[in-house]
Amino acid sequence: MSFDPQICRSCKSSLVPEIPFCTACGVLWSSDVSDIECENHGEVSAVGMCVVCGKPVCGDCAISLNGKLFCDHLEHQKIPSEWEVLCSTDFAFEADLIERNLQQAGFECKVFSLLDHVGTYWATKRRLTNVLVKKDRLSVALTLLKELRLLPNESRQ
């Protein structure tokens, strides 16, 4: 059986080549990530990243729920049940612009960036930032971003 390098072995989602972990399940997939250390236990290698905030976690810190890895923040473990990634961008300015426009239109938003964590800051060639909205408002938010021409290239379309 052959392995497709663009598909996560753990959850079968598409991988982003420049990001060393699966953004869907949090498992590290790249062979050159041995230098990513757990943010809580500095000298222990990370096994994955929190799917919400990207925090590097070791086997002792990683919390696995429904096939996804989370960090120790209880709020992050609850986010997938109510929130959805609206879009992802490599630019903090773009995420801020999207967040401000959505908030002005009455949307509740959350923004998480890999820049918030030293381990992922140095390990990625891209600086992925996710903008999340409540699941029940996802389609309306997408429509708004399209109308405002603020939809990043790699967002949910």
Folded structure, characterized:
- With 157 residues, the chain is of the alpha+beta class.
- Helices cover 25% and strands 18% of the residues.
- The protein has four helices and seven strands, in the order ββββαβαβαβα.
- It has helices spanning 74-82, 92-104, 118-123, 138-148, and strands spanning 48-49, 56-57, 63-65, 68-70, 83-89, 109-113, 129-134.
- The strands form three sheets. Strands 5-7-6 form a three-stranded antiparallel sheet.
- It is globular and about 45 Å long.
Secondary structure elements and their pairing?
Blueprint: E1 48-49, E2 56-57, E3 63-65, E4 68-70, H1 74-82, E5 83-89, H2 92-104, E6 109-113, H3 118-123, E7 129-134, H4 138-148
Antiparallel strand pairs: 1-2, 3-4, 5-7, 6-7
* Helicity range: 10-25%
State mean pLDDT (0 to 100 scale). Answer: 85
Largest sheet: 3 strands, antiparallel
- Following the backbone from N to C, one meets helices and strands in this order, namely EEEEHEHEHEH
- Order of the strands making up the biggest sheet: 5-7-6
Based on Cα principal axes, name the global outline.
globular
According to DSSP, the number of beta strands is 7
Provide a count of the helices: 4
Beta fraction: 15-25%
Distance between the termini: 32 Å
Structural class: alpha+beta
Q: Which segments are poorly predicted (pLDDT under 50) over 5 or more consecutive residues?
A: none
Radius of gyration: 16 Å
